[in-house]
Write a structure and sequence with these properties.
The structure is a single chain. The chain is mainly alpha-helical. It has three domains: 1-62, Alpha Horseshoe (Serine Threonine Protein Phosphatase 5, Tetratricopeptide repeat); 69-140, Serine Threonine Protein Phosphatase 5, Tetratricopeptide repeat, CATH 1.25.40.10; 152-222, Tetratricopeptide repeat domain (Serine Threonine Protein Phosphatase 5, Tetratricopeptide repeat, Alpha Horseshoe). It contains 13 helices and no strands.
Length: 222
């Protein structure tokens, strides 16, 4: 059995899941409570998109190792993919109880609430995820939307500015920062960002529309 487990582990570590799966299952034939084999089988089934079967093995592992790292994270992912949001949230929160700094759990919770259009619930998790620099590219747009929807204008602006320091040619951020500054009545600063976005992508109609709006509003204030 040790040789089988070692072989399964070798394939698993190389992310050769279709090859690891049947070998790990063989281990479970003789040792039903082998936690490593249970984890590998459950994870391989998840990557094969066999979510219900994956859950069955995660639940078996939960009975013998309820505090196994990433156990509830993976269970939450299965429930999320099955469209069972309440159970996904429950498991992601359970993972955070065991590991408050788990970036994947923070991101998944924030994303679930974001998709449900619940910015007040999403913002805390996405903010913590962003502060850890976890999944930054996936987080930034969601977090910006949450700041906008919850009226946190200062944080929204800082977020765009921070992002642009690392990504100065990001037309999405330039346009959104320009639109934000326009909303604050800072039309000259808004136009600097918007016109840069237009130079980078002359075909962007949203940017062009915001430039016309900012110029029109600036004239009214003169």
């Amino acid at each position: 059995m040790k040789k089988l487990l070692a072989k399964a582990r070798s394939f698993y570590k190389k992310e050769r899941y279709p090859e690891a799966l049947p070998i790990a299952k063989q281990v479970l034939v003789t040792d039903k409570l082998n936690d490593e084999a249970l984890f590998m089988v459950a994870h391989c089934l998840y990557y094969a998109r066999r979510f219900r079967q994956s859950l069955r093995f995660w639940k078996q592992l939960e009975k013998i190792q309820p505090n196994e790292p990433y156990l509830h994270l993976n269970m939450g992912a299965c429930y999320d993919d099955l469209g069972q949001a309440a159970l996904a949230i429950k498991n992601f929160k359970r993972e955070l109880e065991l590991d408050p700094a788990c970036g994947k759990a923070l991101y998944n919770l924030g994303s679930l609430y974001y998709r449900a259009r619940k910015p007040k619930l999403a913002v805390n998790y996405l903010e913590r995820c962003y502060s850890q620099k976890h999944s930054i590219e996936a987080v930034v747009a969601k977090l910006a939307w949450c700041y906008f929807k919850t009226g946190q204008a200062e944080k929204e602006q800082v977020l765009y500015e921070q992002w642009l320091l690392e990504n100065p040619d990001d037309t999405w951020a330039l346009n959104n920062l320009g639109s934000h500054l326009m909303g604050q009545g800072e039309y000259n600063r808004a136009l600097l960002r918007l016109k840069r976005a237009a130079r980078l992508d002359p075909s962007d109609k949203v940017v062009a529309k915001n430039i016309r709006k900012a110029e029109r509003l600036r004239k009214k204030t003169k």
